[in-house]
């Protein structure tokens, strides 16, 4: 059995399970409709989750870009102060940050694609549910249980197949979002642990402190010289 | 016949393309057995491209079961292996 047969067989088995659940096919319609509404809610939740994950990655990218600029400034200051060692540290971090930014950009593009796909899925499912709802009303109004069977089988099969499809799409999108969230958390930790330094720019990092020390030493030296001159020493 | 490309929707496809689709599907079985991920990607793409190229997309509000169901176009090699192992992708 090939890929197509296996996939089709699994889905058909699911559909048969639903079709065999109730004596009265009209009950099948109501049951299926309930499930559809539930699934649509799931899809909407999926869209919201993906959107949140994307925003988080975008925020991280902004922070890293700020850090990138700060490290560049630090490197310049360090060179001005004649501290090549410090400039080297800043430039190394700058290059790491640049790599992180590039990787984030790729992930943001991936998740944007996922978001787009889910939104199209939501639209398609909504259209099918609406179509199912009107078919359901017609069948219930016009047919006896015995007469309804054929019509119910077709519409329920059609929508159940769609539901399996959508269910898988949501599940895969959630899996991808989870792995991106895990990666974003790891990056947060990296930022907090100081590996990439405090990108929020809130507290001073080690390069800042070192540069401040150089600056204050320079000021003390200048004041000392001024004092010496003043006192004629 | 109606073919579903999971994640995309349903297509109306002339039966004359069925042989080609079955041929590619059989190739995929062998490729997955051999563990050749790279060839899997290109062969599976042939399958989805084939449906998109020759098929006519059905409107969203049509409620009809498909004759063939093809897994999503971005199916990974690992997922394909899962389908063959009988674990499948879709929960029962």
**Strands across the major sheet of chain B, in which order?**
3-2-1-4
Main sheet summary of chain A: none
Beta content of chain B comes to 5-15%
| Oligomeric assembly | heterodimer
Protein described:
The complex is a heterodimer of chains A (233) and B (92). Chain A has two domains: 2-149, Orthogonal Bundle (Helix Hairpins); 203-233. In chain A, 88% of the residues lie in helices and 0% in strands. Chain A has five helices and no strands. Chain A is rod-shaped. Mean pLDDT of chain A is 87; it is low at 198-202. In chain B, strands 3-2-1-4 form a four-stranded mixed β-sheet, covered by helices on one side. The model of chain B has no long low-confidence stretch (mean pLDDT 92). In chain B, 47% of the residues lie in helices and 14% in strands. Chain B has one domain. Chain B is an alpha+beta fold and 92 residues long. The interface between A and B is large, with 37 and 35 residues.
Quick structural gist:
Chain A has 233 residues and is mostly helical. Helix content of chain A is 88%, strand content 0%.
């Amino acid at each position: 059995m090939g890929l197509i047969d296996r996939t089709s067989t699994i889905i058909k088995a699911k559909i048969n399970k639903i079709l065999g659940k109730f004596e009265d096919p009209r009950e099948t319609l109501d049951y299926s409709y309930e499930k559809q509404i539930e699934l649509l809610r799931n899809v909407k939740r999926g869209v919201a989750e993906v959107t949140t994950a994307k925003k988080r990655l975008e925020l991280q990218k902004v922070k890293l870009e700020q850090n990138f600029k700060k490290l560049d400034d630090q490197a310049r200051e360090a060179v001005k102060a004649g501290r090549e060692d410090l400039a080297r540290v800043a430039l190394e971090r700058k290059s790491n940050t640049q790599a992180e930014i590039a990787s984030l950009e790729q992930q943001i593009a991936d998740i944007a694609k996922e978001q787009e796909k889910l939104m199209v899925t939501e639209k398609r499912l909504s259209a099918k549910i609406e179509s199912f709802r009107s078919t359901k009303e017609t069948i219930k109004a016009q047919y006896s249980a015995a007469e309804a069977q054929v019509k119910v089988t077709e519409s329920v099969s059609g929508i159940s197949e769609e539901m399996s499809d959508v269910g898988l799409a949501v599940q895969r999108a959630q899996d991808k979002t989870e792995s991106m969230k895990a990666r974003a958390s790891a990056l947060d930790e990296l930022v907090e642990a100081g590996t990439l330094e405090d990108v929020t720019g809130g507290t001073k990092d080690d390069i800042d402190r070192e540069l401040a020390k150089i600056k204050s030493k320079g000021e003390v030296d200048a004041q000392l010289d001024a004092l010496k001159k003043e006192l004629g020493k | 016949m109606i073919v579903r490309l999971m994640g995309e929707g349903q297509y109306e496809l002339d039966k004359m393309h069925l042989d080609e689709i079955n041929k590619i599907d059989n190739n995929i079985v062998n490729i997955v057995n051999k563990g050749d991920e790279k060839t899997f990607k290109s062969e599976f793409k042939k399958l989805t491209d084939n449906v998109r190229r020759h098929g006519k997309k059905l409107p969203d509000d049509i409620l009809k079961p498909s004759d063939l169901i093809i897994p999503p176009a971005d199916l990974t090699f690992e997922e394909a292996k899962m389908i063959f192992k009988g674990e499948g992708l879709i929960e029962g």
